[in-house]
Amino acid sequence: MNKLEVLNADEIMQLNAAIHDCWFDIEKVSFKNDTLKFFFTRYLEIEKDVKKKFLFFKKYELLGVECILQIHEVKAYEIIDTEKVQYYDFNELFFDSVDNIISICTGVPITIKINVFSLKISLINTDNIIDKKSYWGI
User: Which residue of 10, 39, 47, 90 is surrounded by the most CB atoms within 10 Å?
Assistant: First the structure.
């Protein structure tokens, strides 16, 4: 298990690189003890494995690892889900340091705004393999 912790606004780019294009289920978002949690699967390139070969093509298998994005010290949050598609992808996370608001932008329209006392975000890679994905490549 590894953990990335963001305490400064200039560290958010590293977090965005780690979560970009990962999909989360809006119905599994939870709030408890001033912490908002987003559970999602992250497919790691370092975990890819060659399963088959055909001419110069290879069939790879990626292992999907369960991850948790935790936003701590939450005062209030707002999720407005107009599309009701259930699954959304992380595009970028923004932090407004004047108002202490974290915004999560996705590829599908949804409003996610989190008002926090201070910036404290954790990204936890649980090491639990929860999915597999195959593709052909060179």
Answer: 90
pLDDT in tens, 68-119: 999 999 999 999 999 999 999 999 999 999 999 999 999 999 999 999 999 9
Pull the structure tokens for residue 99: 């108002």
**Residue 22 and residue 41 in contact, taking contact as beta carbons nearer than 8 Å:** yes
Largest CA distance in the chain: 57
User: CA–CA separation, 108 vs 124, rounded Å?
Assistant: 24
- Within 10 A of 26 (CB to CB), how many other CB atoms are there? 18
Structure tokens at 91: 């595009």
Residue type, 79: I
* Phi and psi torsions of 48, nearest 5°: -75, 150
